[in-house]
Amino acid sequence: MRLTKKKIIGIINSIIDNIILLIFLSIFVFGCYALWDSHQVLNEASSTQYTVYKPTPEDNRSFEEFQNINPEVFGWLNIYGTHIDYPVVQADNNEKYLNTSADGEYSLSGSIYLDYRNDKHLKDFNSIFYGHHMEGNALFGEIGSFKDKNYFDTRKYGTLYVDNKTYGLDFFAFLEVDAYDTSIYDISIHDKQSYLDLLKNNAMYYRDIGVNTQDHIILLSTCTSDMTNGRHILVARLNDTVQENTFIDEDDTKNIDFSSSYTWYIIPIIILIIVIISLYKRMQRKEEL
Questions:
Q1: Considering the domain boundaries, does residue 49 fall inside one?
Q2: Which of 66, 213, 235, 240 is most buried per CB count within 10 Å?
């Protein structure tokens, strides 16, 4: 059968349409996988998976069971009014828990961990904790929220459980610094007052709570996209007095917000669906001709 020029063009157009459809279907599949993978990473980073192990004033047996799973777990950090409610760990280096969960398993989300140079009994003048800035308010994802003045002003307290004792955390400073600023990330502090002055002078927000050289301070550090090699640091004084958690009745403080991860995929998926429908209708019209 002799093919006319019109039929040849029709066949070529049909092949092109099928190729385009295949490409968009591949994009759709990849988008679905990326969404699922992102969802899995956020699930791994959720604090709810550790809730059963959280120590309480009445009972810390479940926490001790968790320490049997991973002996490098040594405490528990909670910031009132946030999703930060996690076990904390310490290794002999600062790389292990970048990609290791608190139960010792491989995880892209990592864990909240204490600088390996610090004493885990919090005897140092300044103790530095690190955690990934995760989407959905997981791990230290909410540290960046303290850049909002109202957020900083309304979330003043937290707790840190170490050595069978719950300490209060009184937050007094929020900083945006360079990751390579060794003056901030120094553990061996010889002049404590100069270090406190350094924190105050570099603080985006500062609350005068009477911190002095006899205190022990806690730095919570995470990365930020606001500047090259940028880091956000929330600073607290360690206190024997534990303040009341006025956020305790808020229903959403323990749930990860997945909306930020979904947003990146909703628009492309909608566009893909529109393109697929358009291609399908085009093919139908060709069959009718």
A1: no
A2: 235
**Pairwise CA distance, residues 138 & 41, whole Å:** 10
78 and 219 in one domain? yes
Please report, for residues 18, 60, 86, 109, the alpha-carbon distance to residue 39 in angstroms, rounded to integers and kept in the order given: 31, 31, 19, 12
Cα diameter, the chain:
96
Which two tokens mark 43? 């699930």
Q: Give the global pTM.
A: 0.76
SS3 of 91-156: CCCCCHHHCECCCCCECCCCCEEECCCCCCCCCCCEEEEECCECHHHCECCCHHHHHCHHHHHHCC
Cβ burial of 49 (10 Å; 0-12, 13-18, 19+) is middle
Please, is 127 exposed, middle or buried when counting C-beta atoms within 10 Å of its C-beta (0-12, 13-18, 19+)?
buried
Domain of residue 22 covers 5-40+259-288
Task: Write the CA distances from 164 to 63, 160, 199, 232, integer angstroms.
Answer: 10, 10, 30, 29
Q: Does 46 map to a domain?
A: no
Contacts by 100-107, CB closer than 8 A, 24 or more apart: 101/44, 102/50, 102/66, 102/70, 102/73, 103/66, 103/69, 103/70, 104/69, 104/70, 104/72, 107/44, 107/45
Backbone angles phi, psi at 213, to 5 degrees: -70, -10
Q: What tokens were used for 63?
A: 């926490």
Residues in Cβ contact with 207 at an 8 Å cutoff, skipping those fewer than 6 apart: 152, 156, 171, 172, 173
Give pLDDT tens digits for 124-153: 999 999 999 987 788 999 999 999 999 999
Number of domains comprising the chain:
2
Rounded to whole angstroms, the Cα distance separating 107 from 101 reads 5
Task: For 192-205, write each residue's pLDDT tens digit.
Answer: 999 999 999 999 99
